[in-house]
Amino acid sequence: MSHDHSLNPETMPQEPEKATLEGKNKFLGLWFFLGGETVLFASLFGTYLALRNSTANGPTAQDLFGLELVFIMTMLLLTSSLTSVYAMYHMKNNDFKKMQLWLGITAFLGIGFLACEIYEFYHYIHEYEFTFRSSAFGSAFYTLVGFHGGHVAFGLSWLIAIMVRNAKRGLNLYNAPKYYTFSLYWHFIDVVWVFIFTVVYLMGKVG
Amino acid sequence: MPDNTNTNSFQKQKNKDEMKKQLISFALMIGFTIIAFAIVAAEVMDKMFAVPLLLVLAVVQVAFQFYYFMHMKDRGHEFPAMMIYGGVWAAVLTIAALVAIVWW
């Protein structure tokens, strides 16, 4: 079957994610999407910066934030970014099993990050009674950080879905772009987190 | 087309060198993160000085993420660069506008 052969060649090209027209389109499409995501997150960051001192006599950033947990979350997400780089390295060397293994580690670290964030929100709500409705600061904080957490949750579902779906197929030119676009999305989530830990947590602590 | 595949040792070595660069970027990113947290935890720096420094550290770290981890330094990334910088341009305007309306 010629169609099947074109997707499962004897030897993989150097960049399997961009070897087909569909792959190239997915690559460009995802970058276009990331450009849009940048604007989306910018509006949330701008809102947060505008409202971060409007605490309505509720808890302030200095009262709430603890650097230890944020540091652990940062390390988890940054390391998961590296493990997805390793996964793409093995994809380029056509080693499907190692790619799946590193993506599994990525998913594990992502789940760890999400668990920390859920704990953090739970802690704020129960110990400080700081909720979405406490103040304009609360609304802006939960919207921005929660939206990022939502992106992590979506990325995890995406990753687990492609890992399970392709587990028995192995790597081919049809699914390589799917893995590659996921890795770009995952790096972008880390980019957003870098600005969140800087602008929200570190600048919040500085005052 | 044997010389266009990843089975050849030249390409494997190239992938390996690329991975080494990415590991170095990872080490630098971890370093920038630790510096940023240390600046805040030590509480020795003035706010006027600490905030711009934190932002610079974040921007540098993000540049490593885009150019090395997401391969924007590689060939064939003109459109991705255009899209991201287009997004960044709109982002800067958005943040400037939202911060400016509460400035006074």
TrEMBL record, chain A:
PROSITE patterns: COX3 (PS50253). It is found in: Cell membrane. It is a multi-pass membrane protein. CDD domains: Ubiquinol_oxidase_III. GO terms for cellular component: plasma membrane. It comes from the Bacteria. The keyword Nucleus does not apply. The keyword Cell membrane applies. Belongs to the cytochrome c oxidase subunit 3 family. This is Cytochrome c oxidase subunit 3. It comes from Virgibacillus massiliensis. The lineage of its organism: Bacteria, Bacillati, Bacillota, Bacilli, Bacillales.
From TrEMBL, chain B:
InterPro entries: Cyt_c_oxidase_su4_bacillaceae, Cyt_c_oxidase_su4_prok. It is a multi-pass membrane protein. It is found in: Cell membrane. The keyword Membrane applies. It comes from the Bacteria. Pfam families: COX4_pro. GO terms for cellular component: plasma membrane. The keyword Methyltransferase does not apply. Keywords: Cell membrane, Membrane, Transmembrane, Transmembrane helix. The chain crosses the membrane at residues 23-42, 48-70, 82-103. NCBIfam families: CoxD_Bacillus. This is Cytochrome c oxidase subunit 4B. It comes from Virgibacillus massiliensis.
